[in-house]
Design a protein that fits this description.
The complex is a heterodimer of chains A (569) and B (144).
Chain A (H helix, E strand, L loop, with lengths): L5 E6 L11 H9 L4 E7 L5 H13 L4 E6 L2 H14 L7 E5 L1 H5 L5 H19 L8 E4 L4 E4 L3 H11 L5 E4 L14 E2 L4 E2 H14 L3 E4 L3 E8 L2 E7 L5 E3 L4 E4 L3 E3 L16 E3 H10 L12 E8 L14 H15 L4 E6 L9 H10 L3 E4 L7 E4 L8 E7 L4 E7 L1 E6 L1 E3 L3 H8 L26 E3 L9 H21 L1 E4 L4 E3 L9 H5 L5 E4 L4 E4 L9 H5 L5 E3 L4 H11 L1
Parallel strand pairs in A: 1-2, 1-3, 3-4, 6-7, 6-14, 7-10, 14-25, 16-23, 17-18, 17-23, 18-19
Antiparallel strand pairs in A: 5-26, 8-9, 11-12, 12-13, 15-24, 20-21, 21-22, 27-30, 28-29
Chain B lengths: L6 E6 L3 H10 L8 E6 L7 H9 L4 E6 L10 H18 L7 E5 L5 H18 L4 H11 L1
Parallel strand pairs in B: 1-2, 1-3, 3-4
Helix pairs in contact in B: 1-4
The chains are: A alpha/beta (569), B alpha/beta (144).
């Protein structure tokens, strides 16, 4: 093997790494390794000067390989590959050592953490010697898009794409478009009608020549890969529709929390305890009344039903605080002499226009009563006849007193939860869910609409509880990402895939059966197997299985991993 | 000086490596004894990687993949399980304590679980004491 000239760049990440790991000591240690031509530490390797330093050193020291010891490669591998390429060598001549997420952030002892960082960096240095130049492949990009879910996010994404003259297939399980927004009356904080917001979009989507709306339909299979997906959709008529699309946007939204799970609220047992969605129905009819048909004099709105609780969902559902205030406002306008109280844990009015809305509700003499998280109020009938109304007992936190309030109608602000079929959807399109069941984005801050599967995007409340403006923003962002790819006409796919070195292949066909993507073909005449590189997703299963060692996992070769093992020990 | 086990971790890129990263972003603290090597899928982990690690002086090897049913590559983790079973037979045949090698499922959201596994494995390996594989190999080589 030719003598490689390796440059090692150890990042301080401000104090994120340097506080625990002695970056200088790591730099000194790697200088001892044969082949290391230059080693430096710098405060932020990912910054412009940091990247320029790498490129300049490649030229000045005629480096053939680069190691960056910094954050997780899942964070900045792409960044540093570009920097290395900018320096004039193949981008795959880079290896990263993860000394932040898997070292400085998880250890307290500076000595042990520094030793570990040295080992991880040494492993990267030994590995990078065996790196091979790889060329990015490009495949044609199919310009059509599959949008799953016809709620506000799906409608928005579909329109955005279709208005750029691209074909869209919009798949919706129900027999109509609109999703959960179609169940609302007015929206907070500006009190726009949800129907008005939707109507125009639904009409435009339905009539758009570039959008094919498939109602009462669902995705049953998704094959292929970015730019070349082959979804199968089961339509209302029961037929299987085979489509070809380049991208997929999942906009499957949320379902409401089942209020009956909170026993002390008596939902399902007490006739005048209703959910927020049931109140929306009353508001749309313009008739807020008890089951017996009376105008309620006392209305209580209970917040955080199923949300922010130890027992149910730990997260905040984000929209209920403002929706609760909206109800206070709407009930007051419908029944001016009603007493409305809001039973809340914390009032979150973080959005644009929301704090003003809260003030307005307070001025309209809504009674705000604070209860303790995990100590929900209890509701019971005031007498034997449900028509006598109910009594709510609670410990009011601000006064510290145990209080009892009368109520003719109780509204439960049910939170959002992942749809019960979200697990199935995650499997179909090969994306992950977080601990609460929401779909996981590629990066929580910097890449909020992409997923770990290239070409599959998420938008709206299927990613986490979200209001209408945030759902719309995400849907448009996903559409913009897709349009940018369509515009390029082809997409670069990773150069990492498996290949059969046919001279070693015995034609045993063990690998043929193992490949989950049927990407390995057998040539009957030559009696050899070979990998269809565009279909290979680089899992490496066949590589570990090949009895002759004939299959090579590019960028994850046995040699590279062996070198890494030697390095960490 | 007290014995500090050296453990090599092979983690799949999509679930377990991401889970380990999440432990970092969440600042969950755990023992510094495991050194992680990233592979795309637990199905890539050739049993020879484990044997190589043990022969290079590792006191333990930790393999982590996606939970059953959650594999990014459909079913790579099931293949990893079967290889793991075969590997255990090999270890037994060589007289290597089976507990030195462990297979665990860690999802992308299980940073805390990853930290717990590392701590537990470190503790157990510490109790087992240093692996005899490398010294034995060196002694054998010297005798030859």
């Amino acid at each position: 093997m030719a003598e490689e000239r390796i440059g090692v760049f150890v990042c301080n990440c401000g104090t994120n790494i340097a506080k625990i790991v002695d970056a200088g000591a790591v730099t000194q240690a790697v200088k001892e390794i044969p082949g290391v031509a230059v080693a430096r530490s710098y405060k932020y390797m990912c910054s412009n000067p940091g990247q320029e330093m790498i490129a300049a050193d490649i030229r000045e020291f005629a480096l053939s390989r680069v190691v960056v010891a910094a954050c997780s490669p899942r964070m900045h591998e792409g960044t540093f590959r570009k920097a290395v390429e900018h320096g004039g060598i193949n981008p795959y001549f880079l290896e990263m050592a993860n000394i932040r997420e898997q070292c400085s952030w998880v250890h307290d002892d500076p000595v042990a953490a520094t030793e570990k960082a040295k080992a991880l960096t040494r492993a990267a240095v030994l590995r990078v010697k065996y790196h091979e130049p790889l060329e990015k492949r490009s495949v044609p990009m199919c310009p059509a898009t599959l949008v799953i879910g016809g709620g506000i996010a799906g409608l928005t994404a579909a329109l955005e794409l279709a208005e750029a003259d691209q074909q869209v297939y919009l798949v919706e399980r129900q027999d109509r478009l609109g999703g959960n927004v179609a169940r609302l009356d007015l929206t907070a904080p500006y009190l726009d009608s949800a129907r008005d917001l939707l109507r125009d979009r639904v009409v435009r989507v339905t009539r758009h020549p570039r959008i094919q709306v498939l109602l009462e339909s669902r995705l049953v299979e998704l094959k292929g890969f970015v730019g070349n997906f082959r979804p199968t959709v089961k339509t209302a008529a029961g037929e299987l529709l085979h489509l070809e699309v380049g991208s997929v946007v999942v906009c499957t939204g949320y379902q409401e929390f089942d209020a009956a799970r909170v026993r002390q609220y008596g939902y399902g047992r007490l006739p005048d305890v209703v959910t927020s969605f049931e109140l929306e129905v009353m508001l749309r009819k313009g008739k807020v009344e008890t089951r017996a048909g009376k105008k309620p004099r006392h209305v209580a709105i209970i917040h955080c039903v199923g949300s922010r609780s130890r027992e149910f969902h730990p997260y905040c559902s984000r929209v209920c605080c403002m929706t609760g205030l909206k109800y206070a406002h709407e009930i007051k306008s419908a029944i001016p002499d009603a007493y409305v109280s809001d039973l809340y844990v914390d009032m979150s009015a973080f959005g644009k226009g929301c704090e003003d809305f809260y003030k307005k509700a307070a001025e309209a003499r809504t009674l705000f009563l604070m209860y303790e998280k995990n100590h929900a109020p209890e509701i019971r009938l005031a007498g034997t006849d449900p028509e006598d109304g109910m009594l709510i007992t609670m410990k009011e936190r601000l006064s510290g007193e145990q209080i009892e309030i009368p109520s003719d109608l109780v509204v439960l602000m049910v939170g959002m939860e992942p749809r019960s079929d979200s697990d199935e959807m995650a499997h179909l399109v090969n994306i992950s869910r977080d601990k609460d069941g929401w779909f996981i984005e590629s990066h929580p801050k910097l890449d909020p609409v992409a997923t770990t599967t290239d070409g599959v995007f998420i938008a709206g409340a299927c990613q986490s509880p979200k209001d209408i403006p945030d759902s719309v923003a995400q849907a448009r962002a996903a559409a913009a990402r897709i349009l940018a790819k369509i515009d390029q006409g082809e997409i670069a796919v990773d150069a990492v895939y498996a290949e059969v070195r046919e001279e070693y292949c015995s034609g045993c066909r063990v690998c043929n059966e193992l490949c989950p993507y049927t990407a390995i073909e057998y040539d009957e005449t030559a009696r050899r197997s070979h990998v269809i590189s565009a279909a290979c997703k680089a899992c490496g299963c066949c590589v570990a299985a090949c009895p002759s060692g004939a299959i090579k996992a590019r960028h994850f070769t046995d040699q590279q991993i062996f070198a890494q093992i030697e390095g960490v020990l | 000086m007290a014995f500090e086990p050296r453990i090599v971790g092979f983690l799949c890129n999509w679930c377990s490596y991401t889970g380990a990263d999440l432990a970092g972003t969440s600042r969950v603290k755990y023992a510094p004894n495991v050194r992680i090597i990233r592979v795309m899928c637990s199905a890539r982990i050739d049993p020879t990687f484990v044997l190589k690690a043990l022969s290079e002086g590792a006191d333990g090897v930790l393999i982590c993949g996606c939970h059953p049913g959650d594999c990014h590559y459909v079913e790579g983790n099931y293949k990893a399980v079967r290889r793991f079973a075969a590997l255990k037979r090999v270890l037994r045949a060589y007289g290597i304590e089976e507990e030195r090698v462990r297979l665990e499922w860690v999802s992308a959201s299980e940073g805390v679980r990853f930290a717990e596994i590392v701590n537990d494995m470190t503790e157990r390996t510490r109790k087992l004491g240093p692996s005899r594989v490398k010294p034995q190999l060196m002694a054998d080589a010297a005798a030859r």
